[in-house]
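Quick illustration, no need to memorize.
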Amino acid sequence: MIKSNLYILLVLISFLSFSQNENCTSIYLIRHAEKVRDGSKNSNPHLNAKGLLRADKWKDILGNIKFDKILSTNLFRTLETALPISKTNNLEILKYKPSLKFYKNFLEQNAGKTIFIVGHSNTIPSFVNSLINENFYKNIKDNNNGNLYHVYKCGNNNPTHVLYYIN
């Protein structure tokens, strides 16, 4: 029993040292927080009170992560969702236009970086699917602003991915 525990410990230590030396990329993606829904035809609403609280909650949840880049679409609700993490990391929010062309080679172009991305119910799952090269995630339901997708890739290994729900 002791030999097997020692063996497991040695495997873990070698794995940890190997993964620390690799060029690892970590990408966190979320949909914007709750937006104003006042019945108007406004296509660019701001966050509502609940959304502002959720944006701060994302800052608390992801506050121990040092991001290298923060990306958001150019709409009030996504920019306002990204703002607290932007301030915490003292980083400018870079604006992007969701498209397959933008997603293509994103992992390779950002190797070794830790990135936070805010998008929309119909763009974030597509972005993640492009990163993992698999049609795995479906559009986010309209009442769901709590999904956190994490894509992680080290070296030439295939990316791993996980979906968390934060209420």
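The chain has one domain: 23-165.
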